[in-house]
UniProtKB/TrEMBL annotation, chains A, B:
Cited Pfam families: CofD
Broadest EC class assigned to this enzyme: transferase
UniProt protein name: 2-phospho-L-lactate transferase
PANTHER family for this protein: 2-PHOSPHO-L-LACTATE TRANSFERASE
Keywords noted in UniProt: Magnesium, Transferase
E.C. designation(s): 2.7.8.28
Xref: InterPro entries: CofD, CofD-like_dom_sf, FbiA/CofD
Source organism of the structure: Ammonicoccus fulvus
Length: 327, 327
């Protein structure tokens, strides 16, 4: 199949690599990237949308190529100053160039612009591809908090922002619960709904099923659109050989009762032929061949291919394979 | 005389050099520096107090020693980014380190802190001298706007923020009027009133009489306190040989009907023995000896000494001379 219009569900670092692969696979298609905004955070008065920023920087060749997030040629004067002012938090590394993005966003928020409008304004700098659109999943405000075991707390547990759990505590504390504050009021934007309705192909990227893809699916309107579309909906596993290539999904999946395997995540998304399921096909890595039986028994056709995103071309290859498999 | 407690009225760059001289002259005195806040400005959502910041950076050895304002070892990543985002204004140079100060201030403003409280919080980093206090003249909000000749405007005139006039237009347009928005509601803080009341010596620094010292004097409570204090009030000319050493007073004095001479500025401040006057003595530079007759004829004793602030010691010398002269 040669898709004309593709909708992609994605988080940040892995999501942006995946999107580069989608573009490499289908150079002429329109691509609407529906990006998670549930790990947004306000620090030092600055509104920060980590996944949106990573997506823009990565697609605009402004990303730090070694870290995979943050800006290339970054300077760190402001963090040093905040430390000298003894202003907390200091655990969230904000580079000076990155802060410029947050300053622009924060001003636009204050001026009443929506997240969609702000992302479009920032994208005029980063996205030169006229057929590539970066869309926040919602204009509502969602913040993910994680409840962890804390032996020092009187209750034995403590809630913190997801970014604090991930960046400050390196996802080490045991997770008891994940709370997405605001998700019940979050509605897909008109742009997202239109992207899902008009797409002739929908790809669910290998991003974190709990804190990236999960919130997108929980945004009002997304799951019904995925279940109703005549397009094929194909999911790609971010769990390879029993652990995530990037991030901390292995620390979060158990808290929502999902095993850390490519098979369990596929069954978690589910086939469109079952209630609530969203996928027509599931793609797992070569190392996870043993998982196929379980997923297919649950009614979800599953393809096994090498899933490492070592280059846009390598990513394009497995994306095309998945699409052909599902057609 | 050996003062125990000194109140200084001051602006930014020249004011901070003057204060270093005051400390060098009187190592054991308590010094309360009452700083102009009428050229404060909000840019990129950041609350900026140029005179306060210059004072803190200068007294804390954090200032760019060449420019006399801004931070030492400054980086400029954010300005470069804002330019790439095509976000205006770009004429006000904001270094990354400097922006950290504005971020901290902006957050404290949002949290409801007063300008006095914020300055004290920032000063904990910069001012190690326990007997030196930096006080904004008011917790009210004052912004200076300048009305200039603009042949391209339909009315032939245009109003702009003082910082735009000074930094962007280098004080070149002809000034028709100066409007201090908010000055009628600006009241001296309790700390300023107490500093003026408790001082046994008051020094009016050689800062701009129109946009630095002028707004301090126009702040409700300041002029009556200066007229009522039993302490000597001594003024120092910033006009040397017919022009300011720093800044753009020569572009502004004509707009308030004051000649650009050390004598005219002295008469503008006036002797405390005349209605509204604030000074017991006026100190002018050696080059301005011819001005003395006119000022003394107006009832204000005037001393002639070299006024160049080439070092804290040189500044201390003319300050001590002025104080002895007035005693």
């Amino acid at each position: 199949m040669n898709p004309r219009r593709i909708a992609v569900l994605a988080g940040g670092v892995g999501g942006s690599r995946f999107v580069r692969g989608v573009r490499a696979a289908y150079p002429d298609a329109r691509i609407d990237v529906i990006v998670n905004t549930a790990d947004d955070v306000t620090l030092h008065g600055l509104r920060i949308c980590p996944d949106i920023d990573t997506m823009l920087y990565a697609l605009g060749d402004g990303i730090d190529p070694d870290k995979g997030w943050g800006r290339a040629d970054e300077t760190w004067s402001i963090m040093a100053e905040l430390k000298d002012y003894r202003v907390e938090p200091t655990w969230f590394a904000l580079g000076d160039r990155d802060i410029a993005t947050h300053l622009v966003r924060t001003q636009l928020v204050a001026a009443g612009a929506t997240s969609t409008e702000i992302t479009a304004a920032l994208a005029t700098r980063w996205i030169t591809d006229p057929a590539l659109h970066v869309l926040p999943m919602t204009d509502g405000r969602v913040e993910t908090h994680v409840v962890v075991v804390d032996p020092d707390a009187p209750s034995g547990r403590r809630a913190m922002h997801f970014q604090e759990f991930w960046v400050r505590h390196h996802a080490e504390p045991e997770v008891l619960d994940i709370v997405q504050v605001g998700i019940d009021d979050a509605t897909a934007t008109q742009e997202v709904s239109e992207a899902l309705t008009a797409a002739d192909l929908v790809l669910v990227g290998p991003s974190n099923p709990v804190v990236s893809i999960g919130p997108i699916l929980a945004t009002r309107g997304v799951r019904p659109a995925l279940r109703a579309t005549p397009a094929r909906v194909i999911g790609f596993s971010g769990i390879l050989g029993g652990s995530p290539v990037l991030g901390m999904a292995h620390r979060l999946l158990p808290a929502i009762g999902v095993e850390v395997t490519a098979g369990a995540v596929g069954r978690h998304y589910g086939t469109r032929r079952s209630p609530g399921g969203i996928l027509d096909a599931w793609v797992v890595d070569s190392r996870d061949e043993a998982e196929v039986v379980g997923v297919e028994r649950a009614g979800l056709p599953t393809l096994v291919v090498p899933l490492l995103m070592t280059s846009p071309e390598a990513t394009a290859e497995f994306i095309r394979a998945g699409v052909e498999f599902a057609s």
